[in-house]
Amino acid sequence: MTRILFLPTRYFPAISGAELYMQRIAEILKKKYNYLVDIFTSNAIDFKSLRNILGKNLNNKNKYFSNVNGMDVQRFQINYDKEIPEKLKIIKELNELEFLDISDECLLKIIQNGPFLEEIIDKIKNHSISNDYDLVHSTFFPYFNLLLGLLIGNQIKKPTICTPFFHFSNPRYMDDSLIEILRNYDFIIACTNIEKKYLTEKYGINQEKIKVIPMGVDYDEFNKVYKTKYHGYSFKKKFLKNDSKFNMVLYCGYKNYEKGAISVLKAIPFIIEKIKKIYFVFIGPSTNAFNRELSKIKKMSNVRILNFTPDNLTGYFDKKKITAFNETDIYLMPSRTDAFGISFLEAWAAGRPVIGANVGATPEVIRKDIDGLLVEFDNYKDIANKVIKLLKNKRLRKKMGNQGRERVMRNYTWDIIAKQTHDTYIKLIKNNIEKK
Predict the structure, then answer these.
(1) Which has the closest alpha carbon to 283: 326, 243, 314, 312?
(2) Whole-structure pTM over 0.85, yes or no?
(3) Domain 3-216+414-435 part of CATH 3.30.200.210
């Protein structure tokens, strides 16, 4: 029986594409391939808590603290008390570090990014982590759990694999010293060919140790099941009420500058000049910058905005979210910080056209003028023009949505992605055994 150790930065009820990826892969590997999967993660809920005590953390009384959908989860408290130099000293005392080619500069930055999980470090120091694991899989770049994955793999002499979700179009991730972490992994899963090309050509990582496996989607949740699952529940009738026949534009994701949420807000005045009967729906964690811009836009006349946060939802498959995807006219997320963009798959599964930014991995994910449109990042006039173009052409919206739906069914269900991941694991495990 194959046994895997997963080391995600966070885990549900923390929500982002990386968390969903690890959760769904783990669940399918256990159910369909009879894997034993152990999950070591932090108790962080939001990104702030990865390194700041003022962020949101999960306590052990929460129903999801130690079990999510039948998967056992071990959550470790984040250490906020020690200063960075002391944390570095603790790491450098580990014998396993000697076998890794990682500079002090890289270590310092990884430690600063957090989450610093001293309990796992103690397990490594005391050799109390099981040798029965066949493989260690970590995500995502550039956080501290990537270092933990390498240290554990080195100690138990098992293959290490990383899905970095490398945001190569976001300047905050362009730090050459941090790439040392990825170079030390035995294998890397890239979400797109563009990501793989970037890692090989810019950073010299051997292309033979990188495999492209995209993200996935629970197709039935967003398509077939919806028709009967919610017994006539309608997002538009519930929240738009008398305006339920109005157009609707949906954004779902972290509401910050990099994801394009603020650019969407700035595009709204230009859109409503041409499209009067329209609602804009935002779903996801808010930021101060988003809230400030939102308060400005809401002062305008004829602006209709619905703003939901995770506190308003019950999880990834909340009926408000699912029905919003099914009833929106356009899905809009002009982000520069996605390694793939699960929400594009969710929109396509619901048969909806998408608009993304012409930067990073998105031009590979969205087939321009086939299943969606591309805009210049942070160009809110371009965003407005593309939204208006689609809203004025119902036939084009339907055609693009159908193209996306067909593509998702063929290539992007979680079962397909889990099968590719399983095959990759087995090959790495077999090669490791043969080396011995």
Answers:
(1) 312
(2) yes
(3) no
